[in-house]
Design brief:
The structure holds two protein chains of two kinds. Chain A is mainly beta. Helix content of chain A is 8%, strand content 47%. Chain A is globular, with a radius of gyration of 33 Å. Chain B has a two-stranded antiparallel ribbon. Chain B is globular. The chains are: A mainly beta, B mainly alpha.
């Protein structure tokens, strides 16, 4: 990863240099010679921000946006030193020249000059990091044309599992750093903490990826502990772009993207439905109900609902404008983004306008003021298939979509018309987000800075839902809902940063600060029926009918913190650092409110030791790291330490009711504690052309917060408790190579692979519990364990239910079938049994379920305890959601003006429960369809070799096992070519002719190819941390192809 | 400088460690328990909360979740699944193949009501501690007594449902408020649960002021006595103990002497001498039979009705027994739909459900309306048997009776029959029959005690259709297999399924414990023979 950064990560350093030069550069102005010139790279492209200094003095400056510089040197002997990250420093003696044009050569070894942010204004050279931190820079982000942070990060960093829900316009995703380490979905749950330009943000989803200069993922305790109480799931530090002194620079980017449903699922046609109706009656010779009329066109039509609903071509217009520049002491960066995205699902769309302004003002040599302002507005329509695809598959294909006159149908045969719903329902959502942050930085002494920051965020969302009478099953009632929610968050922080070098080799750093924040949420939801005018979609008061649906509410929580981080570095060879943080959260009772989080880390650059001299030619840099520390998570609801009274959720005879909350309060709850131990090794070979970073960690979370089930007889349902321990161990390897680095041809490869092994070590009283309805949480198990019965097929004959005493299935011999009117009325008897091909003469044992002996057409379940009865005792863990490992492979290849980048993203191991399929094949509604595999795969007669049971008996003889049928548990492994982009960049000299600094055009695709055995739409989708991998029909992913153009002025 | 840093550190440390109260937050849209139950308004809200939860549990906490019906009637011959709309839950009731996954096998709602009753019993006596006597905040002593009595009776009724539906159950008579108390408790034997029910009802009856007109939407004097009579009848049916019938009779008399919502004593004659009383005038009249459902507060017969206000609580949407926005998964069983539908003399059948709607899914018993005699339309054969004019729909209030006098009369008849007073049993039976416009029967036409019991049960089935009684009647009189076996076999034949019938295992009178209930308390043991 590092090698790539070298190429472009300089922009980051540039800022530091700008800042330095602001302070130092313009201080001196002497007489003598004024030298000007342009600095370019090996391709002739100008380089802005290159440091130009007169050797041995503080005189100098940086190049402008056009790569131009102007320096006044004392005399002709003066030597100009040009330095820039990623390039070999160059020295030029002035001599008699007044104009010096410099071409700088790429250099791979200065990569370690990359500076990364460590939070609260702290920075460190990447080579000096003692902790596990992964970085992603602007260049890497740009290569994938992301529309949100999840796109931008996927596959980029080891130990960071990004699940992307990029099917629906405006959809987000989830980020899990180093495996789930909590049971809770409250508070931050298992989400990492986002820190954008130093301020804590609850979610990174709203950030325009184009604004991002750099992302740091803090994975271990040593790096994240400075964020203490909320850092247990890792911290994602995002630095946005800032302005550079010089002439204004403008970048315009436009892309048009076409999207299409990436994968389709088979649907039943009218002919199959006829057969299915017979199956439902158990009689293949019987009637198929009303469907028998072969001349009736509407019984013989096949509407491809999947195509009508989901098969549309998505269009996305994405226009991004970035502008930056500045003059001495005042720099700015501004961006705007307009996104118009029409989804592949009918009538789903969003429009988004987003803008950011970052301004830095150096008021004096010591005082700097920065302000960031961002604004986000999104509106869209999300059809009801947002949550469930069921309606698309739940309507028989023969039912009309339109009447002959072209008007839409509504309910037919009790099934709604999903096309009508998609078109006529109003399901709108509008979101505003603004963030405003101010930072004041004052240099007290050289090396000692004080920073005060105040940040405020406001998020406002409103939803409207309206269902016209036409869509009602009786056609006489309409329904509407309006909701608004508001979240206001503020944070104030103040901290001192100290950084000084003593006696040349001893660098001491320290950070000390306090912070305080508060979040308040408010909501209001109202619902009405019988709207007089269907043009009005707002509840007007008189149409409210169910008072329990009219509600407003609010809640708030606060956090106050103190933090301290000392560090020491000797020659970059021995580095130690520690952190201390104390947090107090309102989510806990006053006696358990305060938590202390400590960490320590050390690194040893063994390659700098004398005894390693022999390897200097191959191994340029080698460093061992170790860190240990604790982190917290206040993953609890807001007032769970208080016994509360809910009011107004019930009303009786005109009096509003009050009662205790269903959840029992627990005033003893406190922080979850996560301890991480991390061993790391950083190696850099062949002058930086090959870099390797390896981390091994053990992350243990104790005092887990979760909702323990309370015996229902107490009148309460659950209680928050602090019990239990989870351990995650993992290995992460990140490789960064530049196999080819020619003048014209260059190939850079970044790969990372992460192995995670989680285990639940301890639970309250060792009590296992069911999370949701299919996951088992037990000691020794893992989060994401699926609990159920193992499906071994379907009994072929009545007499197939025959076992040996030790539970081996026997094969019937000479079966005689007497056909009856239905599958169940037929009987099958056999002369005897065979075991492994040899006649069996022992006693034959049978299996029973629901009080009856199992027959042909009943599902064969594994009888774990071999007691002859299929019951609860035969439930066991049938699989797990967590992948064994996942990897990302990023290639950047450039040849002259062309560059190609592509990303392969793979998850191996892990399973997903296909609830969507089970619902559609279990469906007990007799007038819906099933999936073709269930229609053709069901047992109907004695002797059928089937995968689905005999329909008429499926519910009553235990053949279904909803939520726990191993047949629906599928391998979720996939390999995906998740994005590729081919760019043509006009030579700088040519683009200049069009008055542009930069002109490039590209073609790209996302979600291009996927190899998987999963039979649903896609095995990758985000889900709740405690009950992951339950596919109940998500908005399917789209395959995208886009064309774009970037223009820089 | 170092000094500076140190002093700043020290200052910050002191500030933070001393100021965890900085981050205090109070609930914004909820109340705090420690400052509740301080005045009359809190007490009123607590009582409303208890009834509200009971109502949600029994009538609707979502579409088609009327446990009132499912527990009391769903497994009987009154209802069956509506095949097109049926779900696993209703299929299981239809085929008598209940599992622990069945939504209605969950007793959580009843225990929630019990928890609220326990809390009220504990906290209400102190509600006036900080109120000024005579102020609006004060809860008057008589109201306080009445409230506590209602809480006892409500707790008793919930346990009575539990013991009838699941048998053994943990008894909790104190609210769970202490974190350190082990929340798990094993099931107590069903006899002990019934004892608790009886003791609670005695307590309630003692505390409840006597002789007041019933406030029909709340538990009142008559309601307590009616529950108690029902409890003893249940006990008697299971134990076959004559003493229990005698006890039931004592409590029927207590019902008879209580006052109806109109102020009239329910059955003044019957409250004195066993069996002799009872007059047609004590019942809602033939012509206004329906009024006791649509306007119970003005009925001489109503004892206790649930107050379901659609505006406040939403659509009741009860499967099979009310109208709803969606198609019901459960509907009127074919047997009763055809046989009773043919008894057109009976004024009740036409007012109970739409006998012309072949989908068998329109019960309009709770909705106001009148029917008029047949209007033969020209050219239609057969003529419409009758015409109904009225309103029914999801935006109407429903007031389902929990107890009413006809139910008590028929139960009383059953008790009299069991205690050898055939003549008076027939007398009470005839009061209901003649009110329904059916011919009176004579004691002579019933050869045996069982025959008369059959007739009484038949009358109960019709009179109380939709009121959640039929299943308990069948269990109490041990007739489940007899009635249900042929019906289940017919259903299995229709389905093409294995014909196992209702079966003979009487342990299946009880429901299984829901899986969530079992998962949450390790001391609970599933009812046999339910295992999956």
């Amino acid at each position: 990863m590092e090698a790539c950064e070298r190429k472009v990560g300089g922009i980051k350093l540039l800022m530091l240099f700008v800042a330095l030069n602001l302070i130092t550069g313009f201080a001196s102005a002497q007489t003598s010679i004024k030298v000007t010139g342009t600095v370019t790279d090996s391709k002739g492209e100008t380089l802005p921000g290159v440091s130009v200094k007169v050797k041995g003095t503080a005189i100098g400056g940086t190049t402008s946006a056009e790569g131009k510089f102007s320096v006044t040197v004392p005399n002709e002997k003066a030597v100009l030193v040009f330095t820039y990250v990623g390039f070999t420093a160059k020295e030029e003696t002035v001599g008699s020249r007044k104009v010096i044009n410099v071409k700088m050569a790429d250099n791979t070894t200065t990569l370690n000059e990359v500076v990364v942010s460590t939070g609260y204004g702290g920075t460190a050279r990447k080579r000096d990091l003692t902790s596990a931190t992964a970085s992603v820079n602007a260049k890497q982000i740009e290569e994938r044309q992301p529309i949100n942070l999840f796109d931008a990060l996927q596959g980029q960093a080891a130990g960071v599992l990004i699940v992307n829900d990029n099917g629906e316009p405006g959809a987000e995703g989830s980020v899990t750093v180093r495996g789930p380490s909590t049971f809770s979905t409250e508070g931050n749950g298992s989400n990492p903490l986002y820190v954008v330009d130093g301020v804590i943000t609850d979610n990174g989803a709203a950030i325009n990826p184009n604004d991002i200069q750099n992302i740091e993922v803090l994975k271990d305790a040593a790096s994240a502990a400075i964020y203490g109480a909320r850092a247990a799931n890792g911290v994602i530090l995002i630095t946005t772009k800032r302005g550079v002194e010089g002439k204004p620079r403008m970048d315009v980017q436009y892309a048009h993207v076409f999207g299409q449903l990436a994968h389709r699922i088979q649907q039943a046609n009218a002919e199959e439905l006829r057969f299915y109706r017979k199956l439902q009656n158990g009689n293949l010779n019987g009637s198929s109900g009303e469907l028998t009329d072969s001349l009736n066109p509407s019984f013989n039509t096949d509407n491809d609902l999947q195509d009508l609903l989901l098969g549309n071509v998505g269009h996305r217009n994405d226009l991004k404008i970035g502008m930056s520049g500045g003059q001495k002491g005042l720099t700015y960066y501004g961006s705007a983004n307009y996104l118009d995205d029409r989804g592949t699902a009918l009538n789903t769309w969003i429009k988004r306008v987003q803008s950011r302004v970052n301004v830095d003002f150096q008021a004096s040599k010591r005082l700097k003021y920065s302000t960031n302002l961002s604004f986000y507005w999104q509106t869209g329509n999300f059809t009801s298939i947002n949550n469930s695809l069921r309606p698309v598959f739940d309507r028989p294909s023969y039912l009309r979509i339109y009447y002959p006159d072209g008007s839409l149908t509504s309910y037919l045969g009790t099934k709604r018309n999903p096309v009508a719903n998609a078109l006529l329902e109003d399901n709108g959502r509008e979101t505003f987000k603004t963030q405003f942050s101010n930072t004041l930085n004052y240099q007290i002494l050289k090396g000692l800075n004080f920073t005060a920051a105040f940040n405020a965020q406001l998020e406002n969302e409103s939803t409207t839902y309206f269902q016209p009478r036409f869509l009602d099953d009786n056609g006489n009632e309409n329904l509407g809902r309006n909701g608004t929610s508001k979240e206001f968050y503020y944070e104030a922080q103040g901290y001192f940063n100290f950084n000084r070098v003593f006696a040349k080799n001893h660098t001491v750093t320290a950070l000390l600060g306090v912070s305080r924040d508060r979040t308040k949420n408010e909501f209001m939801n109202i619902e009405g029926r019988n709207f007089i005018s269907e043009d009005v979609h707002y509840v007007t008061g008189t149409n409210m009918v169910d008072l329990t649906k009219q509600r407003s509410g609010a809640s708030a929580f606060s956090l106050a913190s103190l933090f301290f981080r000392p560090g020491y570095n000797y020659k970059g060879r021995y580095i130690v650092q520690g952190t201390f943080r104390n947090d107090a959260s309102s989510r806990f009772g006053s006696s358990n409110r305060s938590g202390v989080f400590l960490s320590g880390s050390a690194a040893w650059r063994f390659s700098d030791e004398k005894f390693m001299g022999f390897s200097k030619n191959i191994l340029q840099d080698g460093k061992l790291r170790y860190s240990y520390g604790t982190l917290g998570n206040d993953a609890s609801g807001n007032y769970e330490h208080l016994q509360r009274i809910v009011v107004g959720t019930t009303q009786y005879n005109g009096v509003g009711g009050a009662m205790l909350t269903d959840k029992f309060s627990n005033n003893t709850i406190r922080w979850e504690n996560t301890t991480t131990e991390n061993w790391g090794l950083d190696l850099s070979f062949l002058k930086g052309r090959l870099g390797l970073t390896t981390d091994y960690y053990i992350k243990t979370t104790s005092d887990l917060l979760y909702d323990r089930q309370l015996p229902k007889e107490t009148g309460f349902t659950t209680m928050k408790v602090n019990l239990g321990t989870i351990e995650n161990r993992g290995l992460e390897i990140a490789l960064n190579a530049t196999p080819v680095s020619g003048r014209n041809f260059k190939w850079n490869l970044i790969g990372n692979i992460s192995f995670e092994r989680g285990k639940i070590l301890k639970l309250y009283n060792g009590q296992e519990f069911i999370a949701g309805n299919k996951h088992l949480i037990r000691e020794g198990g893992r989060i994401g364990d699926f609990y159920g019965w193992k499906n071994l097929g379907v009994f072929q004959y009545d007499c197939s239910n025959a076992y040996t005493e030790d539970g081996r299935l026997l094969t019937p011999v000479n079966v005689t079938v007497v056909e009856g009117s239905t599958g169940r009325n037929s009987t099958a008897t056999c002369d005897g049994y065979e075991l492994n091909g040899t006649p069996y003469t022992g006693t034959v044992y049978n299996k029973y379920a629901n009080g009856a002996k199992l027959l042909g057409g009943d599902t064969i379940w594994e009888d774990i305890n071999n007691d002859g009865v299929i019951d609860d005792a035969d439930r066991h863990v049938i699989g797990n959601y967590q992948p064994d490992y996942y990897l990302g492979l990023i290639n950047n290849i450039s040849y002259k003006s062309f560059s190609l980048s592509f990303i392969i993203n793979t998850t191996v191991g892990g399973q997903v429960y296909n609830s969507f399929k089970q619902n559609l094949t279990n469906n007990s509604s007799s007038n819906g369809p099933a999936l073709p595999e269930a229609i053709h795969g069901s047992w109907a007669r004695q002797g059928d070799i089937a995968i689905y049971p005999y329909f008429p008996d499926k519910d009553t003889r235990g053949s279904q096992k909803a939520n726990g049928n191993s047949m629906f548990l599928e391998d979720a492994s996939f390999i995906r070519l998740s994005s590729a982009r081919l760019t043509y960049r006009l030579k700088p000299s040519s683009s200049k002719k069009f008055f542009m600094n930069n002109l490039s055009a590209y073609i790209y695709g996302t979600n291009i190819l996927t190899w998987t055995n999963y039979t649903g739409y896609d095995p990758e989708f985000s889900s709740s941390a405690l009950t992951p991998g339950d596919d109940n029909g998500k908005y399917p992913k789209r395959r995208e192809l886009g064309l774009g153009i970037n223009i820089g002025f | 400088m170092i000094k500076k840093i140190l002093s700043i550190t020290a200052l910050a440390m002191v500030l933070l460690s001393g100021c965890t109260s900085w981050v205090d937050e109070e609930p914004l849209s909820e109340g705090r328990y420690d400052s509740f139950f301080q005045n009359r308004f809190d007490a009123d809200a607590g009582i409303a909360g208890m009834y509200g939860t009971f109502q949600q549990t029994m009538v609707s906490d979502g579409n088609f979740r009327n446990r009132y019906t499912f527990w009391g009637e769903g497994r009987s011959d009154n209802f069956e699944r509506f095949r097109q709309y049926s779900t696993n839950t209703t299929n299981e009731m239809h085929f008598n193949s209940l599992t622990a996954n069945n939504d209605f096998a969950d007793w959580t709602g009843l225990y929630k009501v019990i928890g609220q009753a326990n809390l009220l019993i504990k906290k209400l006596p102190d509600v006036n501690q900080n109120t000024t006597p005579g102020s609006v905040n004060e809860l008057p002593a008589t109201t306080l007594q009445n409230y506590i009595a209602q809480a006892y009776a409500m707790r008793a009724l919930c346990y009575f449902y539990i013991v009838r539906v699941w048998g053994d159950a943990p008894i909790r008579t104190e609210p769970y408020l202490d974190l350190n108390e082990n929340p798990e408790r094993a099931r107590d034997p069903k006899d002990k649960v019934l004892e608790q029910v009886i003791s609670d009802l005695n307590q309630a009856y003692t505390m409840m002021p006597k002789g007041a007109s019933a406030t029909v939407f709340y538990i009142n004097e008559g309601a307590i006595a009616a529950i108690m009579a029902d409890v003893y009848m249940w006990k008697a049916g299971l134990s076959k103990n004559q003493q229990d019938y005698q006890n039931a009779i004592v409590w029927f008399k207590n019902v008879f002497k209580a006052k109806a919502p109109t102020g009239k004593v329910y059955n003044s004659a019957g409250s004195v001498t066993t069996g002799s009383g009872g007059a047609a005038a004590d019942l809602q009249s033939t012509g206004t039979w329906k009024d006791m459902f649509t306007n119970p507060a003005q009925s001489v017969e109503a004892i206790w009705n649930i107050h379901w206000d659609y505006l406040a609580n939403g659509c009741p949407c009860m499967a099979g027994v009310s109208t709803a926005n969606n198609n019901t998964p459960y509907r009127i069983a074919t047997g009763i739909f055809t046989t009773w539908g043919a008894v057109t003399d009976d004024i009740r059948v036409k007012q109970t459900f739409d006998i012309t709607k072949k989908e068998q899914d329109r019960t309009w018993k709770w909705y106001p309306g009148v029917y008029t005699p047949p209007v033969p339309a020209v050219g239609t054969t057969p003529a419409q048997p009758y015409k109904y004019t009225g309103t029914f729909g999801s935006t109407l209030n429903v007031y389902m009776p929990v107890y009413r006098l006809s139910d008590q009369y028929l139960l009383y008849a059953e008790a009299l029959n069991k205690t050898g007073d055939k003549a008076n049993a027939v007398k009470y039976l005839n009061l209901i029959r003649t009110r329904a416009n059916l011919s009176a029967v004579t004691a002579a036409s019933f050869a045996t005690e069982t025959d008369l019991e059959t007739a009484i049960l038949q009358e109960r089935q019709w009179e109380l259709f939709g009121e959640g009684k039929r299943w308990f009647d069948l269990v109490r009189t041990d007739r489940v297999a007899q009635v249900m076996d042929p019906i289940i076999i017919a259903r299995q034949v229709e389905q093409g399924a294995a014909q196992t019938g209702w079966g003979t295992d009487k342990r299946k009178y009880y429901w299984p414990l829901h899986r969530n209930v079992l998962n949450s308390n390790s001391l609970l043991v599933q009812n046999q023979p339910y295992s999956e």
